[in-house]
Structure formats: C-alpha cells, structure tokens
Design brief:
This protein has a domain of about 190 residues: 2-Layer Sandwich (Gyrase A, domain 2). Helices cover about 15% and strands about 30% of the residues. A hairpin with a 2-residue loop joins β9 and β10. The protein is globular.
Amino acid sequence: MNPLTAPVDTAAPTYAAAAAALGDGAYMLLDQYGLIVVSGDDAASFLHNLLTNDIQTLSSGEARLAGFCTPKGRLLASFLTWRDAQSVSLMLSADILAPIQKRLSMFVLRAKAKLVDASASTRLIGLTGNVAGVLAPLFGGELPTQPYGVIHGDADAQAGSLIRLPDAAGVSRYVWAVPAQTWAQYASVFGAKLRHEPASTWDWLAVRAAEPRISAATQEKFVPQMINFEVIGGVNFKKGCYPGQEIVARSQYLGTVKRRAVIAHVTQAEPVAAGTEIFSVDEPSQPCGMVVNAAAVPGTEGLASGIDCLVEIKLDALNRGTVHLGAADGSELSFSALPYAFPVQEAG
C-alpha cells in the first residue's frame, strides 16, 4: 500500500484498546518540550520575519505551526505558536531550545522584542479524551472545539492557555500551558480524576497524527515539504520573506519535492531514535530516508508491541521493494495511511 494515496486513516482501529483508555481522559507531563516566550511591541513582527508561517495576523484565539529554517531552507526547529495580549509563545523540542533561543536573539537588533526561556515557570501538560470535567471550570466552562483553537484563562486565576490540536488515533488532544504554581495546586486533582500516562504516549499520538517534531538529531535534515509541514499548515506561501523562503517556495511551485513523510511501524521492543536512517532493499547501499520521530505503541507489552515511526522517505522507494530500519537487512517497516488528506498530484 502506498500511504500517500491510501484512504485517509482517521480511526486507527489497530490501536482500539490504547485509544479507548486515552479517550476516557488522560494527562501527560510534556517535559520533552520547552517554551520560549517572546514579548515586546515588536514580538509578532519580529517572529513574522523569521518563521515559515504568518505570525503577524495570529490572533489570540488560534494557534499555528511554524518552522525556523537555515538560508538553505532546512528546518532548524518546528514550533507550535500562540499569542496572548502580552506575548507570543513558541513550544519546541526541549533539546534544541537553548541554541534556537540564542540564534533567534541574534536577529533582534533594534526590534522591541525579548526572548525568555519560560520552561521552568510554565508547565506543558498534554491531555486527551474526556477532560472537560477537570479543565472546563478553569476556562469559564468551555474548551476549544476546533483544531488549533485557543482559549485563555482569566489572568487573575492564572489558568494559562489551552490549545486544541487535531485528533490522533481517534482521540482528542489538548496542550495546556499553565503557570507552574497553578499546576502545583491542581496536579493532585488531575491525578485523581484522569489517567496519568508517560510523555512517550504523547509522542506516539503525535506520530499517529503525522505531526513532525524537529529535534537535535534532525536539525538541518529536511526542507518543510519533506515532512509534510506545509500540508498540516506550518508554511504560509503568501507571506513575506524569511530565512530559506526562496528554497521552500521553489520546492513548492516547481514540483521538486521527491521526499515525503509517512507513518511506519516496526515490530521490535528496542527504542528507535530520531535520525535513524532507513534503507530500501532495492538500493541497499545508501539510505532512502530517515526517522523523524518514533514512539512505542502504548498499552501493549513485549516484542509484538512494536514502535510507530514518522519517517521521511524518497517517494519512489515506497513503490520498490521493502524498506528496513538501520540497514537493508534491518527490521522491516510496514506503512499505514496518513490521517490527513494529501495533495495526490505531488505524489507521482
């Protein structure tokens, strides 16, 4: 099966047990992510000139994906971005936060913008399924209903911001960016009413959503289109220039994208690291792609549980022989349909 042309997979029935448990209501401490908060009069315009998406028109009621590229159009970071009355927040992989903050700060110059690592003062909590009973009271009795919708708690109540993400494996997902002191007050309440899952479960859901996260192992490896970043809304082709914009635009309009991201599964118990190369038996001497993100399938044990991966791969390798992890004789990958519609005209 070619996962780029297969019917969109929205229910992920293979993982019904895991999805049912998460759908009952669960929370995860997202320590694999960090948070950069950009404040000042020029915060939005400053970021608008650097990132792949339109930050200037970002409203307080929505979130957007965005990337930060090298001049050659290769992604240095991927972000979930949102804003409130005072600042713009950038959620990114924790292992690249410090160098990305430093690199972005080099562009401040005369702009009225200040970048702060808010990872210690703000907890990032992932939530799934039936969580309205514990969350809604903190946000005036309601939750965001659409993907990338955002609601903010009353400033005096210190409830932070709640972002709805696209569903994954048939389960609703939210990110709660909450002041650390507020989380300290509510942690026991959440623990009593919701299932506590490890951070790796959130990573698994992100893989099932085919939602890439750039980490230290994959920096400068991909033009946004190679990991479907424009398909899921991470690139705005109508905005002004940003580092790498010419390369990204050329790839889009000249049809030069020959690699894409797909969901794969490997039946093994050992972890799979981001950045691991994959190989086709049809061309065993050189890699045909790379693992972007990977996570163990939750709710199962032993060798049969396996690992789900988001892999970047040459399009022609999908139609020629089997694909393997690490080497041409490594564990075989099986592929499944993407959870979102794909521009089929680019897949040939």
